[in-house]
Each structure stands twice: as C-alpha cells, then as structure tokens.
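Can't paste images in this forum, so I'm doing it all in text. The chain is below; anyone willing to post the predicted structure tokens underneath?
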Amino acid sequence: MTSYDSIIPCKNKQDFTINFFKLLLILGVVSIHSNVLVEIDKPVDNAGYMVVDFLASKLTFICVPCFFILSGYLFFNNITRFNMQVYKKKLRSRFYSLLLPYFLWNLIALALTIVKVLFFNYPSHGLIENGHLSLLKLFEGFVDYTDGYPYAFAFWFIRNLIVFVITSPIVALVIRKRWGIILLIPLLLLDINLHGFEYFIMGGWFAAYYKELKVDGVSAVSSIAIWIGVAVLSEFIELDYWLAVKFVAVICAFLGLLNLIRTHRYRLDNIYSRTLIASTFFIYAFHQLYCTVIRKSFENLFGLESSSGIILSYILSFLVLVGISFTLWLICRRLFPTATRLLGGNR
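Text version of the structure:
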C-alpha cells in the first residue's frame, strides 16, 4: 500500500478511473463558469473570442451530461434485481451524498444572497420586499430562486439528480430489456428536452449491459475525435437535431475519456492527483459562490476588447477559482473535518 492511499482509497482501477474522470469534469464545469464571454452582448471578431468560446463552451458541453451518465451508472451498478428493498437502500445512501449537501450549500448561498441584497444592492427577485423577507420565496429558492436555478446555482445538477434518483424505478423499467434504450431515439430526434434524464438512463443501461465501460485504444481515440469534431463544428455552424448530435458526442466523450484515463492510470495515480480528487466536490460546491465576482474582477482589469484581455481574464478566473477553492478545502479539512465531510456528502 502506498503512503497516500489514506487520502482517497481506490479499491481498483475502475475506482481511480471514475474518480479522476469526475475531477476532469468538475474542472470543465469551473471552465464554463469562468467564461468571460457572457459579459459580451455581441460576438467579437477576434481569435480570443473563438479560443475562449471553444474551451469554455463548445468543448465543455459534455461535462454535466457525463456526470449524469456516471450517476446513473453508479446508481444501478451491481444491482441484479431492482426491488423496493434496493430502492430504499439507494435513497438512504443518497440522503448523505446528495440531499444533505444540497441543503447545506443552498443555506450558505441563501445567507450570501441576503447579504448581497441588503448591503450591496443586488436584486432580491422577490426574496426581500419592502424590508420584509418573503417566506414563500425563501423556501421556493431552494428549488428555483431565479431563472430555474436554486440559491446555489451550480447545484441545479444536484436538484435534477435528486429527482432522477426518486424516479429511478422508471429507469429500471426502461433498461429492463436491452432494447429499452431505443425509446430515447424519437425523443432526441424531436429535440424534447429531458433535462439530463436521458443521460441518467444511459448510465443505468451501461450498468446493466456494458458494466466494464471498456473500448479498445482505436475506438477510444476515435470517440474522442468525434466529440472534438462536434465541438469544432458547433463553433461554426448550427447543427441540426442538436440534442441527438449532442447525445452521440457525449457518449463518445464519456467512453473515450474513461478509457484514456484507464490506459494511463499508472502515470496519473499519485499523491497530487489523489489529493485533487478528494477535493473535487468541494471545488464544485464552493467556486459557485464567488465565480461571478472573480470573473468580473479580471474583466475590469484586462478588458474584453482584445484577444489578450479575453484570454487572460478567462485563464486567470479559472486558476483563481480552482486555487482558492482547493486551498480552502485543505484548511477546512484540517480545522473542521466533520463539517467538511458533511458539506462534501461524506466523500
């Protein structure tokens, strides 16, 4: 046993592969939230705009869908028969890994929201009217505070995932037969938005019929090429049947990246990567609380009128968000280990 096994134990190659994949996906999510282009009303005709748009939008569109696939896979993995006993056990385990951190981080975000409204003149969106707190809006904000996002806006993924877990018996019915997955095809071709449920179903299907998630080297490289190809095309043209094309690209990225990580596991598995892996959920949860402030600070410093300003603002926003969140996790883990575990869903 190596000296760093206590940081985040990995029982086998599959454990490390999945955990490292989660880390990459979270970094992709931080990249999305570092996108300074959201402050530009019209596209700027320069190289910086295209570079940041590609890295923070076009290439990273697979991150959240891949998380939904992983969640479905891990939920249904090693289940031989889905029954009420299994369902209750899964719900209990997700209370600590999903529901509790969802509530705690939204509580923190609510407190910050109230401070911003009262002292920094942020819009309250009905939370505080004429100096009075609206109890109805207060509770509603845990699900939908504004524009379909809860107080902790990045946790819309967790909110949707909680719903998917509760409705998992539907997934069990769909994947009961191997051919059940084809039911998704007409929905995708008709561009019917299932808010990520299609990917959770796909993950369940993988757990039932493609448990090892392995492809050969050529297939892995080809899959990654398809994902990147779709990302490049979407930079220049609007793709027809986008949900169907996106679904294919996400599956390709999912299988390709997993197998690329698995192939290079022994190069990637070290004390530094395991420490970063252990901080993954905290980085995801904490960076959302201040990403807009960091992003706008660099925008004001470098400006968005030039390629260098756009690229520098994006890169430094990303590095600072990851750096501060990781550093705070190290401090919290040392000083408040129990609270940090609860905030991290016992991860």
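Strands lie at 128-129, 132-133. The longest helix spans residues 84-120.
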